[in-house]
Amino acid sequence: MAAIRRLLFITLAGSLGVTSTGFRANVPVDTRSLDEIYAAAQNESGPLIVASGGDAQSQGDTIRNAWAQRFPRIPLNLTVDLSKYHDSRIDRAFYEKNENTDVALLQTLHDFPYWKEQNRLMYYKPATFNDIYNGEKDLDGAYYPILTFNFGRFIYDSTKLNASLIPKSYADLTDPRYKDKLVLTLPNDDDAILYLFHTIVSKYGFRWLDGLIANNPMWVRGTGTPTFVLQQEHNNATSKLALTITSAAAPANATYFHVKEPQAPEQYMSWTQTAAIFASTKRPNSAQLFISWLLSDEFQSTLQSQGRPIVRRSLDQGELYLSNTTQVDGFRVFMNDRRFVERWRLQFETSLGTAQGPSALTFVP
Ligand SMILES: *[C@@H]1O[C@H](CO)[C@@H](O)[C@H](O)[C@H]1NC(C)=O
Ligand SMILES: *[C@@H]1O[C@H](CO)[C@@H](O)[C@H](O)[C@H]1NC(C)=O
Ligand SMILES: *[C@@H]1O[C@H](CO)[C@@H](O)[C@H](O)[C@H]1NC(C)=O
Ligand SMILES: *[C@@H]1O[C@H](CO)[C@@H](O)[C@H](O)[C@H]1NC(C)=O
Ligand SMILES: *[C@@H]1O[C@H](CO)[C@@H](O)[C@H](O)[C@H]1NC(C)=O
Ligand SMILES: *[C@@H]1O[C@H](CO)[C@@H](O)[C@H](O)[C@H]1NC(C)=O
To answer: Given the CA of residue 319, which atom of ligand 6 is nearest to it?
Structure first.
């Protein structure tokens, strides 16, 4: 019996690639300061390779610039691409045994439990680990929320749309007064937009989708694209394009953009972009420095000053979970049920066709 149990354990351990010390590494919280980790990281050969989810290279600039200023001796190679292609390449490198990504920071939240099951993630707890909301992090230290994003707020060009014409709810978007005015990301091309559209259609039915399509929206790829198009068309008097719900934020450099949150019980979508260090990293201290810095007071307080909900309890003081208009953990649950995701994706593809047009990354700088 003992022999069978031992054999079973060896087989299981072999298939999961776990060590004989157990299934979960019980790692302590790192008590080193950022400067101490920085000193250790300088002993490693760079650059640190980070796969960052997004749909415009410029979305990586804030982190790239802040890192270069704070840790000039550790070169950072942070590439922005759609999370769904980053994860695919990361898996391909794993299959072909040539892994080179040190850290992933992605929207594809189903990847993290999957990679953890395969024992491909490094267990690591940065100094602020116990202050990160339990609902968003892996308790063993395999992955962590870094920053919050959302889609579904009304972003509009106020010179083209009078304040009285701003929708009060998603139901309003089927009103003929929005004909030719909308620019929207295809929900079958981005799972976060899919989640938003699934929330709306679950409430209003497919009649809502039919009404929306009747208003002739301009359908695009990428979530940066709608506000980019609205900016391009701003000075075009012939263009009626004025409104989107599928961009995360209004461009900071254009004062004519305004943002309005839908009112409860309407729900927009939000999530915490999540990061992990790969166990295969050859630059463990550099990778740990990156995670520790992103979750430090230093970095998180700059996000706080932008008015965003924060993944750290002490800085956020409940905000992340207090909203009546968005449920931050809904998307994590949705993403982990790939059969459900696929059924909804095809519902939208049935009406809208496969995603066409230039890739988001080639369209928006
Ligand atoms: C740098 O690496 C060498 C060789 O691996 C090691 O002996 C030394 O302790 C390291 N220094 C730091 C600051 O980590
Ligand atoms: C950055 O990393 C990517 C992905 O590994 C690689 O294709 C690219 O060549 C690297 N760029 C530099 C400048 O090292
Ligand atoms: C907004 O409303 C004002 C006052 O009714 C009107 O003069 C103006 O033309 C409207 N602008 C647009 C873009 O519809
Ligand atoms: C202005 O908008 C109209 C209507 O959408 C479009 O046909 C035209 O190509 C646009 N002009 C420019 C310069 O983009
Ligand atoms: C804002 O930035 C975008 C993208 O860099 C650019 O195309 C646009 O002209 C800028 N607008 C203003 C008002 O500066
Ligand atoms: C959410 O709704 C409750 C009950 O109406 C209200 O007390 C609370 O202030 C609302 N929260 C926010 C963040 O608006």
So the answer is: 13
